[in-house]
Amino acid sequence: MYKKIFFIIIINIIFCNNIHANEKIVFIDTNYIFKNSNAGKKFTSLLEKKLENLNSDIQKFKKEKETSEKKLISQKNIISEEEYSKKLSLLKEDINKFNKSISSKQEEIKKFKNTAGNEYAKELRIILEDFSKKNSILIVLKKENILIGKKDVDITKQILEIFDNKISSFFK
User: For residues 30 and 37, what is the distance between their CA atoms, to the nearest angstrom?
Assistant: First the structure.
């Protein structure tokens, strides 16, 4: 009786291993694809321009307000206290308006990044699903989650080529 059960278990183990031997497991470096794809490079360029413009605006405003503040401080003893208070409150009001403007621009940049990230993930998923079906791939893992793996199961360069051929930009 025990010999039959043992024999059945051994047979199952052998057949299960043979069944799974034909199924592929591969990995991909999604960050590499994002950074090196044409669409990723365009996005990075646009993001850098937006950030440069924002920093430029901040620096200009800072210089203007520092000049205004110095001018106001130098006039403190010359103008009436009431007029000084008015000018000071106007200066503070301008600073508050500018801070709100900066916050909205930062939020806009954050949305821009999120939109691009979502579009990238969606397009990459479609490409990977198609690639997996065509090449009988069971599992695609992220390279960040792999401790060690053979170079021949890394499909990053293949997917980058397909990605560049299909996707020119994350924004339509």
Answer: 10
